[in-house]
Structures are given as structure tokens and as C-alpha cells.
């Protein structure tokens, strides 16, 4: 697989998640949260750590940076998204797009930090 095609599986998963979220928008409970707060720092830090760890694990199995990025960032975002989906259920704090923004920023930062140390 060419390096430029390494992100296709991640793009397919992301597209599927977006379709599922949009399809179920009326059944979700959304959070009414602020952009700042302790939980935002936790979302960022955990996503960064997961991304760096998953990228490191992927590097042990593949020399292709595109595959490493897809696995590292993908694992982090999959876990962050599943946490938000769980929060969206009844009794949860609600699905937070702001938490997801911190998850994405953390995942990208974790991957970048791992790459910077190699």
C-alpha cells in the first residue's frame, strides 16, 4: 500500500462514526459544558498518551509512518469517541463536542511528540 493511502481505513472509520452520530442525533443527550475545565485537560492528556503508546506499538510492527499514524491516532480517537458515546446515553453527562476537540488535539499532539523523539 502506498504511503498516501495509509489513511484510508482511518477515514472510512471516521466517516462511519460521523454517519452514525448524525443518524442518532435526536436520541443523544448533549453536554452543555465550557471550553475550560479539569476534564478538558484530562481528555487532552489521556488522548495524547494513548496516541503515543499506540503509535509506539504500531512502530514495532510496521516501518510505514502512515500506518503508524493511522493506528496511533485512530486508537486514541476510537477510545475517546466511545467514551463520549457512553456519556451520551441516559444518565451520562452528555456527548461533548468540546471534549472531542480536546481528544483530537491530544491525539495529534501525542503522535507528534512520539515522532519528535524518534
Automatic annotation (TrEMBL):
Keywords, sorted A to Z: Lipoprotein, Signal
* UniProt KW Zinc-finger keyword: no
Which branch of life, at top level? Bacteria
Q: Where are the transmembrane segments?
A: none
The answer to whether keyword Signal applies is: yes
- Tell me the leader sequence span: 1-31
PANTHER family reported for this sequence: PTHR35462, TRANSMEMBRANE PROTEIN
Q: What is this protein called?
A: YfiM family lipoprotein
Record organism: Vitreoscilla massiliensis
